[in-house]
TrEMBL record:
PANTHER family: CYTOCHROME P450, P450, PUTATIVE (EUROFUNG)-RELATED. It comes from Lepidopterella palustris CBS 459.81. Coiled coil: none annotated. The chain crosses the membrane at residues 12-34. The lineage of its organism: Eukaryota, Fungi, Dikarya, Ascomycota, Pezizomycotina. InterPro entries: Cyt_P450, Cyt_P450_CS, Cyt_P450_E_grp-I, Cyt_P450_sf, Cytochrome_P450_monoxygenase. It comes from the Eukaryota. PROSITE patterns: CYTOCHROME_P450. Belongs to the cytochrome P450 family. This is Cytochrome P450 oxidoreductase. Heme binds at C454. Pfam families: p450.
Amino acid sequence: MSTLSLLTPLHFLKSNFLALIFAFILWIPARFLYRRLVSPLAHLPGPLLASGSRVWKLWSVYNGHTETDHINLHAKYGPVVRLAPDEVSFASPAAAKDILAVGKGFRKTDFYTCFPIPDNPDIFTEIDEGKHALLKRFAVGPYSLASMMKLVPFMDEVGRELIGKLDGIAGVEGRVCDLGDWLHYFAFDVLGEVAFSVRFGFLAQGKDVGGCIKSIDDIQWYDGIVGQVPPLDYLFRRNPLLGLLRFLPFLAPSPPLIVQMAFGEVEKRIQGGKYVDARKDILGQLMEAREGNPDKLTDANVVAVAFGAIGAGSDSTASTMQSFMYLVLSYQDVYKKLETEILAAEKAGQLSDMITYAEAQQLPYFQACLKESMRLRPAVGLDMQRFVPADGAQIDGVYYPGGIRASVNGWVLHRHQETFGKDADVFRPERWLEGDDREMARCMFQFGGGSHLCIGRNLALLEMNKILPQLIRRYHFELVYPERPLKHHSTFFVVQKGLEVYIRKREI
Ligand code: HEM
């Protein structure tokens, strides 16, 4: 290459520098206007900023209240809203069914690739539908209710440990108990037991072990924000040049202590390249599946799926239990009815020492309270996004072009008045007991839907059905600040703080 040919672009740059800056400044609004106006979505209502850029979404997640922003957006603009130049949010359960349904060709967007670990996707982060189906096929057995039932004795041990801790707090007159934190610790310790047969020790230590809850929250802030503009991930987490800046915690957070503990368990079980016999927890069952299918499932897949449980299963279950307790305790009439039902079952000798899943199914008001909590405050606060198939598709009876992003948010869907009633904004468990609730049940998306329906729902439901009535049965609770809303922010999951209660042990 001659010196002249190298100099020419440099020379051009130097002599046209100002013109180039000016062109760039013009390009931004021009691009904004182009995206706003020249688009098959141009006719859809929505915030001005959202129609020409992804800044509205970024800002919303950065502020931590996307769930409320989406509710307000649909209240203002109607059931179909343009959320970004190529993205539409839908408020109706009928639309959600179309978007999430199995076999309609909608697939997860690149939003999900911004969750760790980028080079070894798990069931949640794998966006290639073929690979996802394969991973899920092997995980369905380990996550089934039947498999989970076999792990109940370990779950009960964790439940007893929680009760031991709460007994201690209840014994001190006037002591404030941060029930939200204890439920969070419980969810982590149960997960350690059922996924890895490791007791993480949150309950034993009565604290966030190794700052794990905090670091998962930090990581999810990053995931949620960067996930709104996925190419940004290549600028930060996936950028090899930023290796030099690894001292910045959000660029290279060290794996939380519990992840290291779980890794220790994986290493222990692989001896001399062979799996050793261990408890049939999630990891153990996945390793067994790997041995029978070495050509289909790799070691890396096993590790990804088992570790995916920590990210996907801890905050989600904790958040749902916190919402349940917060809502029930905020509505005194509901709390009284629930107490009455559970104490009557206790008196009638219908409850075991540690309440079983089957016994909890016989508590209709409790079931109604649980469903109503998951309806009003689902644990996922961001929108679930899918790409419309290349040839386009009908969503709620209207055609949308291929390649655009279709989004649904449980906080919006679950407030659909035609489905849940005119008082859909109100916590009223009775709605589940007034006649046929099947249509409402079909329109609940707290666990997502279709081929990406939450794989951990059996575990979460088993855990919550056992521990929540157990707590109401054993203690009388009172909110320390009955008028104060529960503090929360949405990264992907709704992370909640401040569920402070007075707690008294019942005489039973
Ligand atoms: C009450 C507790 C839980 C709630 C509310 C919940 C909610 C959800 C939701 C809404 C999705 C769909 C996300 C989407 O499509 O964008 C999902 C997916 C998933 N959840 Fe859960 N989850 C809970 C507990 C768990 C647990 C305990 C685990 C594992 C131990 C788990 C593992 C997963 C996985 C792996 C996926 C991805 C499924 C797929 O794409 O096929 N979840 N969850």
